[in-house]
Amino acid sequence: MRERRVAHKRRSAALQRRRLGILAGFCMLGFTALGLRAVQLQALDAEWLSARAHAQRQATVRLGPLRGEIRDRHGTLLAGSATVSSVAASPRRMVDGQRTAAALARALSLPQGALRKRLDSRRSFVWVKRWVSPEEAERVQELGLAGVSLHPERKRFYPNRGMAAPYLGFAGRDGEGLTGLELAFDIALRGASTSLPLLRNAHGQTLIHWEGDTHARSGARIVLALDARLQHFAENALADAIQRTRAKHATLIALDPWSGDVLALVQRPTFDPNRFWREDPRNFRTRAFVDSFEPGSTLKPFGIALALEAGAVKAGDRFDCEGGIWPVRNRIIHDFKPHEVLTVRDIVRLSSNIGAAKVADRLGSERLVSGLQRLGFGAITGSGFPGEAPGILKPLRKSQAVERANLAFGQGIAVTAVQLAAAGAMIANGGRRVWPRLVLRLEGPAGSLEWPSGLGERVLSQATADEIKKMLHSVVANGTGKAAALPHHSAAGKTGTAQKVVNGRYSMDRYVASFIGFAPVQHPRLVVVVVLDEPRAAHTGGVVAAPVFREVTSFALEQLRLAEGGAI
Amino acid sequence: MVNTRVRGGGLLLRVLLASAVGISVGSGLLVWTRTEIVSLHYRLTRLTDLEAKLRRDVEMLRVEAAALAAPRRIEAKARALGLRYPDAGQVIRLPRFQVAAGAPE
To answer: Which residues of chain A form CATH 3.90.1310.10?
Structure first.
């Protein structure tokens, strides 16, 4: 009995051990399987699974490059870019379109009706609002609406708003330069696009996730020759002039005659490039480069310079100005005020049309036209500005006496303000050609590219240039340009009042008033051209344009210390 | 005979248990390492996010600073304070201070 009990106990113990063994075996197998599975998930299939998860939660958007900055010669930021958010929706993925539209309208201050209509479609992608503020982006994010997502986009900012706007131009919503310097240097400014990964949640909403260095492909920085201080002052002066004269529009360009640097380029009216889509597109044109006008008397010094250079006349030669009325073929040429006999100097000082026409007669049609071409008229200046107009300068035959006479006092020719300024700079610097220099340098990741100076070859002799400078000084000292005289410095210049052509005829009440001048006379530091289109209160260049020259040049010479050799 | 079987079975059990423990510990270590990598990746992503956000803030601040320093705005503020441009001749340029040789600049 006892033996049977012992045997039974032994069998039970053996059975228990076997059961324990089996259990331990199962446990071990289980752990081993778990371990192996963990190894499989975490090591063997890790990459594949990770890629699959990545693909489920991640989307990629193409982010435009961060457009390069535009700065003035002293480093003032004129145009810069930043990354902002835009709100987009996928109406197909929305759970409740009505509720979504109402919530978005509240968060983004949009009209609810229009937004609801837009979100009612079955499209897969709709912009709700582009370039939202950080606060608006945060509000949208907090709403957590299905089918609504935030997208990073680049935005161009112009911190000085309308300052130099027609000259700088602007970049479109997709980051491409559309006008002005933004267009001219688009390739350099643009840089390269980059792909930006975004995270998606379970509802397919895109969550902003800014991964990677989005700056790596930003465009080059452009340093302009422009001086923001002078530009600002000139903008104010021109705005005042527009108000005083009620002119349709006005342009001012200031050049350094020794380098061709465009120190200021002002246009009124202007526009705010930050909201270009709401502005009048007529103001987008950079008139100084693309609009041609008949220069009138501001062209006289150049015809006379050519006659002096060719030896056709001398400064002291006297011409009968016919008492202010001179018939040429079938036309009568008038002087604004009648004059009798005038020297060449006085023809410039008193702006006699008849005197200028008689000097041009001595020079001859061919030499007059080819000479004006040599001075840069009738061709683009080489500035590189997009859409620059060459102006109009037609060849003349010897027999075209009326046309030659007209050309001598600036009719039958069309010039741009920048051509006039470049030609004026040529007189100011003693006879060397000047190309307007818009940019000082490009600064990119690979280094800096300096723009060459705009000072070119000699076109007029020093003696001719000096003689013309004296004549132009007399215009300001005691001629038609007295309003341009500076309180502390000598100035030289020429007034211009040109009748506008309306329906093929010269208008009797629409004029372009202009002034071209430089200062100081001995060593000019600044050439300024002022053009006012259709001034109403008074219409002569000496009355409406010359004071603007005085104001701007005086500021530049005295407050920017240009006259003392200060660096602008 | 029985004792030998029992002793043999116990050894096998111990080997199996030790293997199971080894595999479990090894797997645990591997999983912990991977989890730690993922966790570090999350931290890195958060920091990258922060860096990118700070970069964006810098971009915006740069533009804002330029807008605040715009000549038009400064002039309006100055005029509101009763300031105006100096008249011609009121700007006096001071001679540059000459530093004596050897003196600290």
So the answer is: 60-110+121-224
Angle between helices A300-310 and A401-408 (to 10 degrees): 110
Query: Which of A25, A82, A229 lies nearest to residue B16, judging by beta carbons?
Result: A25
Q: How many CA atoms lie within 13 A of A253 on its CB side?
A: 29
Which residues of chain B have a CB within 8 Å of the CB of A236?
75
Predicted complex ipTM: 0.71
pLDDT for A310 equals: 96
Give me the residue label for tokens 């003689």: A467
Instruction: Look at residue A418 and tell me whether its pLDDT is greater than 90.
Output: yes
Residue pLDDT, tens place only, A528-542: 999 999 999 788 999
Every domain of chain B and the residues it spans: 2-80
- CATH 3.40.710.10 maps onto chain A at 228-559
What is the 3-state composition of chain B as percent helix, strand, coil, each rounded to the nearest 5?
75, 0, 25
Active site residues of A: 297
Most confident stretch, A38-42, A65-69, A156-160, A445-449: A156-160
A80 and B62 Cβ atoms separated by less than 8 Å? yes
**Interchain contact, A487 vs B70, CB within 8 Å:** no
B70, A81: Cβ pair inside 8 Å?
no
B65 vs A160, A175, A218, A430, CA distance in Å?
11, 22, 20, 43
A164: left (phi over 0), alpha (psi -120 to 50) or beta: left
Q: Does residue A566 surpass a pLDDT of 70? A: no
Give the pLDDT confidence score for residue A39 in this predicted structure. 79
Report if pTM > 0.95: no
The whole-number pLDDT of residue A106 equals 92
- Asked whether the beta carbons of A444 and A473 are under 8 A apart, the reply is no
| Top-confidence residue, A107 or A211 | A107
Given this structure, which CATH class describes domain A60-110+121-224? alpha beta
CB pairs under 8 A between A and B: 121
Question: To which CATH superfamily is domain A228-559 assigned?
Answer: DD-peptidase/beta-lactamase superfamily (3.40.710.10)
CA distance B6 to A423: 115
Report whether A165 contacts A273 (CB < 8 A).
yes
Determine how many CB atoms are found less than 10 A away from the CB of residue A65.
20
B23/A564 CB distance under 8 A: no
Query: What are the tens digits of pLDDT across the range B7-66?
Result: 566 788 788 788 878 888 888 898 899 889 989 988 998 898 888 889 888 988 999 999
